[in-house]
Every structure is written in C-alpha cells, then in structure tokens.
C-alpha cells in the first residue's frame, strides 16, 4: 500500500503528512503530528480517550480515517486553550478535581465541551448519558459531572 499526502486542518493550522490511507485520525495526530494530548485507550471506539472535535462535533478519532477528515476543522485538546488562557472546561476540571491519573482527561474535556455546546447538559442525568462513552478507570465521574455542571451554568 502506498504512502500518500494527507492534508489536515488541526487547531486552525493546515498540516500535510505522508501516510498510508488506512491511518486513523488518532494515529495521524499522535504518530505523525506529535499531538499526543489525544489518548489511545482501546483503539476501537469503547473508551472515549481519543475524543476530538470535527467541525465542532465530537468523534472518536480511533474510529475514523484521517483521509476522511481532510477539509474539515479538527480541534484537539491542544487547541482548546487560547494562549495562556485555559478553556472554561479546563478550568472547571481543575477546580473540581475532574481527574486522577489524567489519562482519560483530554477525551473527557473534549466531550464535556461538546456536551455543553450541543445542549446536553440540562441536568446531571443528561450529562451522564452524554458522557457515558468516556470511561474513567479511576472513577472520577462525580467530579467530572460537577465540572460540566459548572460550565453549563
Ligand atoms: Fe478511541 Fe478508545 S481509543 S474510543
């Protein structure tokens, strides 16, 4: 299988990588662009550690090919803060201790942002439902929900 040029717009910057067409978006980010904030947990759509936004909607980056995401706006955890200013969801995770080991945190935060933005944080139950694809083996769930609640207002 040949290597091809893939153009991806990540956090506002267009980048070109040389990769096989079968490379997942997750591997493109981590292995080809050094954007290792996005985590690989299960690599088959079951843990949410790899959550990013594509055109403002969250996806599991392990489940999509990079080639399919050309021409779209991809946002990773690295693109959330504005310079030194953290995103409100990042601030809320800090304030509420929304993590322990931290491995699931980038995915949790990306899902949390989408949860509020897409109007799924009307109640804690709604938030838990929306966030149910993001697993936390440390069990920080109550604190994660508290963080999302704070941002949702
Ligand atoms: Fe993609 Fe687990 S690594 S859902």
TrEMBL record:
Transmembrane segments: none annotated. Residues 4-80 form the 2Fe-2S ferredoxin-type domain. Keywords: Iron, Metal-binding, Oxidoreductase. Coiled coil: none annotated. This is (2Fe-2S)-binding protein. The lineage of its organism: Bacteria, Pseudomonadati, Bacteroidota, Cytophagia, Cytophagales. The chain holds residues 31 to 183 of 185 of the full protein.
